[in-house]
Amino acid sequence: MESAGFKEWSLVCDALGRGEQSIILRKGGIAEGREGFSFRHRDFFLFPTFFHEQVAKVRITSANLPGAGDSISIRWYAKVERALRIGALRMAETLAPLHILTPEVARERFGYKDEGLNVAFVRVFELSPVWVLQNEKRFAGCRSWVDLPSPPKMKRKAVIDDATHEKLRVRFDAIVEGRPLCRP
User: 90 Cβ partners below 8 Å, 6+ apart?
Assistant: First the structure.
């Protein structure tokens, strides 16, 4: 396993870990550099970030959001199966069933600086045991990727079964390729 951490809202990490979300929408952090954001790692640990405003920016009815503490619990590992940049707001809106962000947040991310959005369809795995890291200054800042220490030995288990995952992948591919979704 790589030892890259992908910083994402805690509530989004939880949704990915419960199988309620299968894509990541990313514009990039302020500190991404000249090249901007890209899914430069194809395998990574989901590194949860905490700020209370995220509760109002997702489409879930209730959220238990702990505050940032002295430690970070890494519970999930993700593998990018397909990543691309989309240039049409309508496509970003059509992807709504595959994520928990509010329509306003998706529009906001799409239009930030220049129009467009990076999207990745991911397969997520639950880790056992949970990897607990001490929260350090080097993990702070508005950037998407953090280097993590070498991980301990862990088992991985897919959070959704293969058949469900494949149906979600077919739906994602149809949306980004502009094809109608065939329903059985």
Answer: none
